[in-house]
Amino acid sequence: MSAGPAPAPPRPGAPAGAGANAADRLGLARRRRRAVLWTGGLLALLVVSVLVAVGAGAVAVPPATVAAVVGHHTLGWPAEQAWSPSQDAIVWQVRVPRVLLAVLVGAGLAVCGAALQAMVRNVLADPYLLGIGSGASSGAAAAILFGVGAGFGDYALQGSAFVGALAAALLVFLVARSAGTVTSVRLLLAGVAVGYALYAATSFLIFASGSAEGARSVLFWLLGSLGLARWGGPLAVVAVVVALTVALLALRGRRLDALAIGDDTALSLGVSPTAFRTRLLVLVSLCVGVLVAVSGSIGFVGLVVPHLARRAVGAAHARAVPVAALMGAVFLVWADVVARVALQPRELPIGIVTALVGAPFLLTLVRRLHTA
């Protein structure tokens, strides 16, 4: 297929850069069209994936029935129920909240990973690099093994995990700022140090409890699970937080681009690296804290998906962030399907599935960095 007519050469007497500017505008238009095509295609794929994923499981439900049940509960159509009460309960009460949570967690982890890779200028950064996941794990382990967080009522596990995540983020920020300026290297080193310390704290809690059943529960949660998904407050909170995070990161795409190039470039463009990095840390910490509190530690999504998004639509974050959100949503929906059906009737921790997919990608990335 032809790539289209080449841009016309500059007119005699035109500025020397006119041809280059025309080529730049043409390239920008092509990248925008490509981003629109990717966004539309991923949206369609996400809708199909949701319908299939809701129907998949120990009790299979056809996609047409899934669509009818969802339409009945949301739009009142069709008025007459042609499906059984058990199908209605399975689809609407159990699987729809779980699949929606997979969509939100996948999108949130993907965009947070993209932001962190720009923040610390490291292609191997992911949402758990700054110790947030380890903090949430310590809080969750304390809740499961010792009943900490009873004041949160039915949401003791989620509440304790969220508090642990925020405490870890605050500790990382204080350590990184102890020298005066929050740089990418200080954030990276502080996150790794705090993460290892909190991982050791979680291991100590498991050892000190002496409960084999509690240890299994903590391990399953550490590997990630969407089994806590229910209609109600937590799902709505996750939806609001993820939507705001995606919107804010996409709107600040140019600042993320400048930060990813370097602090000197950011300063020359009027962006304060320290102030912007601090705001990013707050936003990402809140989002990842909420996500880990409801799903546990699901690895590799925030590492793998941002790279795929940049390869699809380019490095500009204004385009890469929305595409990464959709890619992350689709990826985690299907990872959850595999986790539910691979070892029926038992459920496989979703973190195992994402690691099986992400590890080969990481090895490929490392190999390319080495050869480069």
Verbal overview:
The chain has 372 residues and is mostly helical. The chain is globular, with a radius of gyration of 23 Å. It is 75% helix and 0% strand. Helix 3 runs parallel beside helix 8 (233-251) and helix 3 packs across helix 13 (317-341). The protein has a single domain (33-75, 84-371), classed as ABC transporter involved in vitamin B12 uptake, BtuC. It starts with 17 loop residues before the first helix and ends with a helix.
Write a compact overview of the structure shown.
This protein is mainly alpha-helical and 372 residues long. Helices cover 75% and strands 0% of the residues.
Oligomerization category of the chains in this entry: single chain
Element string (H = helix, E = strand): HHHHHHHHHHHHHH
What does the overall shape look like? globular
Helix content: over 70%
The CATH architecture classification is Orthogonal Bundle
Q: How many DSSP helices?
A: 14
Count of strand segments: 0
| CATH-level-4 superfamily name | ABC transporter involved in vitamin B12 uptake, BtuC
Q: Please, what is the average pLDDT? A: 88
